[in-house]
Design a protein that fits this description.
Elements (H helix, E strand, L loop, with lengths): L5 H12 L4 H22 L2 E3 H8 L3 H7 L20 E3 L11 E2 L9 E2 L12 H9 L3
Antiparallel strand pairs: 1-2, 3-4
Helix pairs in contact: 1-2
């Protein structure tokens, strides 16, 4: 379940509990309001290009091109910062198909953690699979 799915999940639980436990149902509605606020706040958070590159799977240079900061490129996503210090709102961040963020545990077995995203992740391309095999992933 994605974080964006939590508000609707909590609201369904509240509806199920309404007849039997009104206080518990109200607690789930309150949790839904808090979860919705947290999801909205995270989506509207401006992030720097280094963080955006990690989360999106695209390079900083490519993100600069998408922001229209490189000569000859048209802006495809809005810049939430300045030309000197560009920022991207997390909700505007493009996602490279098949990309997932890894936890920062250098010597442990690491499971990929999918970035909070309402768009479905596509299967990795042959090139991505080959890179993963070559890198020991």
């Amino acid at each position: 379940m994605l974080p964006a799915d939590l508000p609707s999940f909590y609201r369904r639980r509240a509806t199920d509990l309404d007849a039997y436990a009104p206080a518990a149902a109200e607690a789930f509605r309150e949790a839904a309001r808090h979860a919705e606020a947290a999801v909205t706040e995270a989506a509207l958070e401006p992030i720097d290009l280094a963080t955006a590159a990690t989360e999106s799977g695209y390079t900083i240079e490519h993100l600069r091109r998408l922001l229209g900061l490189e000569p000859g490129y048209v802006r495809k996503i809005p810049n939430a910062g300045t030309p000197e210090r560009p920022l991207i709102l997390r909700c505007n961040l493009p996602r490279k198909p098949g990309h997932a963020v890894r936890r920062a545990e250098p010597h442990a077995e690491v499971e990929p953690v999918t970035v909070a995203n309402t768009r479905p992740q596509l299967a990795p391309s042959r090139t991505q699979v080959a890179h993963a095999i070559a890198n020991g992933d």
